[in-house]
Amino acid sequence: MPWNRKKSDFPIVRIDDRLLHGQVVVGWAGALGLEWLILVNDRVSENKGLSAAIKAGVPPEIRADVVTFDQAVNDMIAGEYAQKKSMLVLESPGDALRLLHKGVALRKLHVGGLHFREGSEELLPYVFLSNWDRMALDEMLERGVRITCQDIPSTTPVAYRG
Description:
globular, 9 strands, alpha/beta, two-stranded antiparallel ribbon
């Protein structure tokens, strides 16, 4: 198992454009023994029906929250998510860069799925990047964030620009 994490490694920050879905909920949460999944997305947070539907797909033994970007920034800075084995899920590299610009000490970033969109190019079979995505990831690298790509827990992580 490539994922043997210490408590201090949490929260894990993952980019996945499918947000909270089976691969995250069943695959990652099970493999890491996650206790808390936090979807950071203003659009979903404002849509109570969509938010409830997404949270309904998470087993009851795992806490699931959908929060606004500003709430996530405040909670990250306060260390709230480090209290449990948690994973934050963001939709895009731009979201992760926003965390960094807002003062969140982001040491590691995990790129899961970024699927094909017009204007994007394949980096890996599960990671397609636009120019904006690359600029955001490159800036984070320059600022010392360790970025790896991995779709499922049983595969080996691949360093972005490794």
